[in-house]
Amino acid sequence: MSSYHYTSETPSEVKNAKGLHLITQNTPNGQAVQIFLEELKDAYNTSWTTSIIDISTNVQKSDWFLRLDPNGRIPILVDNTQSPPFTVHETSAELFYLLKFADKEDRFGFRDELERNEALQWTFFWHGSGAPYQGQVNHFTRVAPERIPYAVERFRNETLRVFGVLEIQLSGKYSGEPKEYLAGKGKGKYSVADIKTWPWVKNWEKSGFTQEEVKAFPHLLKWIDRIAERPAVQRGIGEAYAKKTI
């Protein structure tokens, strides 16, 4: 990476990284890119290095980090194969960057432009609606200094609503054909849209939703289990990403 990105505080494992380098933490957003890299490893033997931080220490607000991502959020993907090296922030943008440059056969994307756009739609849907809503549920029910019933109720209801939108898509309620994955013709195809969405939705219980509440989404629950069976998915949320390295 060109020198203007670096300071004396930049960790050496970031400064000296070669190839793809991921700065992450084992949160839903981090897990999405971790999972995709693990899938690419199985598909193409893609390699990368990883730095794991602890966002509770606010390291992501330090100057060296903000030079890579002015928004101060994980994950960050640095592609040192580009000249000069290229930095990507925002989980969904990282997924589509990897799709473009590392998934040459579109195993996790689509060649058909309409299917490709469908994958964009569902990725953007979760990026712009699902993740913010569920994230606010987690905040107001678990870490807010005081309980604000209106905020809790609003974001719980919105999260259940977007779960219901996913259920509509997967159940084929209006298309007439149930789908196994969010995007693609027929039953759909496992893609970046699923990879973006799954790490959040799988945590419905941790977010405080009850089995009674989610039983209204049977196709969504089967989709959660279907994706969880993939070896790369299990590695992507696993112990390798659990311990801080910098």
From TrEMBL:
It comes from the Eukaryota. Residues 112-246 form the GST C-terminal domain. Pfam families: GST_C_3 (PF14497), GST_N_2 (PF13409). InterPro entries: Glutathione-S-Trfase_C-like, Glutathione-S-Trfase_C_sf, Glutathione_S-Trfase, Glutathione_S-Trfase_N, GST_C, Thioredoxin-like_sf. Belongs to the GST superfamily. This is GST C-terminal domain-containing protein. It comes from Pseudopithomyces chartarum.
